[in-house]
Amino acid sequence: METKKVAIVGYNRIPFARINTAYADKTNQELLVAALNGLIDHYHLKGKRLGEVAGGAVIKHISESNLVRESVMETLLDPATPACDLQQACDTGIEAAIYIGNKIALGQIESGIACGVEAMSNIPFETSARLRKALLKANKEKSGFGKIKHLLSPKLKDWMPIVYKGQEPETGLTMGGHTEITAKHYQISREEQDELAYKSHQNMAKAYDEGFFNDMITPAFGLDKDNNLRRDTNPEKLASLKPAFDKQNGTLTAGNSTPFTDGASAILLASEEWAKQNNLPILAYITFSEVAGIEYVKDQQNLLLAPVFAADRMLKKAGIRLEEFDYYEIHEAFAAQVLATLKIWENDNVAKQFGLEKALGKIDRNKLNVKGGSLAAAHPFAATGGRIIGTLAKLLHEKGSGKGFISICAARGQGVTMILEK
Fold this sequence. Notes:
Largest sheet: 10 strands, mixed
Protein name: Acetyl-CoA C-acetyltransferase
Order of helices and strands: EEHEHEHEHHHHHEHEHEHHHHEE
Distance between the termini: 24 Å
GO molecular function, one term: acetyl-CoA C-acetyltransferase activity
Domain Thiolase C-terminal: 298-422
Mean pLDDT: 96
EC number: 2.3.1.9
Helix content: 25-40%
Domain Thiolase N-terminal: 6-273
Oligomer: single chain
Number of strands: 10
Low-confidence stretches: none
Structural class: alpha/beta
């Protein structure tokens, strides 16, 4: 069976906002609808029935079990457009694109939207096990006295909500805690991390000034730019920040790590025929992708390094060396994670110690995250993939030809890579 080419024909996102700022009272659905309607408006999709919309959020309320379908019903698309939720931590946006792309390649659908959203300001709290059991028993109790009896059984401390900290269940460490171990293991200096963060902010500020994002971002709820961007940051300011995770000997700070973030993004994918019928230019094609997992409970430095294996397998399938790309979009969850990944990919000895046959090649740093990365834009978990795909597709479209490389790490020791071509 001959497969169809998968074209990227549109992109849109709302500005990303640090937790508890511009979108403090907004839900996943409100943010996602804003991003979807921006895409629909920009590409004249009002009333159209698309093949499918797929995406999700990493953290959802119980009431959001069908988040993407419910969101589609609130947009200007034909309500007959089906939708589904999927989730793979920070890989969610890319996985949604792979899901939609595979259906297009197989001829099952002609068009679809891959999306992702995160409303970290509105995440649900957990309750203690004792309180949960008491509430369930009280709910079943018929008499008022019985209900009160059950509600009085938990201790005062049991009534305190449990706040989300982003810890890995298998280790009890946060991503930052794991990445501190990574930085020490691979001898990534504080200066290197701060330099990468500084360049990320500088590149994004320049991109805004050039108007690169003008057709990529729909203002939402009073915000028209990513509010994590720090135009005035410099190496001296970054160097003055205190360690955020290992308070005594750490090198990760608020400046070289991404904060919890609210935001949403959407990517329009299609077959070549559908793009032509709808008068939409083909920005780029998705040609290869690979998902990988890695052990990180015993080797705790590995949590965010699964893209090392994903890239190795993908590049072998594509027959391409790592240095043969025009642009590289590597998700900057932490500067240290990016630098450790690059060190493994580029150094033969380190690559072999990690488990690769050899180094994958060198990356020209002038081609890396040229319009800024997650350290500047910030990181709404499920929405970052859409931001990165959109940015790289536009870069390739403006260039007129070429290849782009994407790498995104994720919680639970997973990662994804992708190749876009024009």
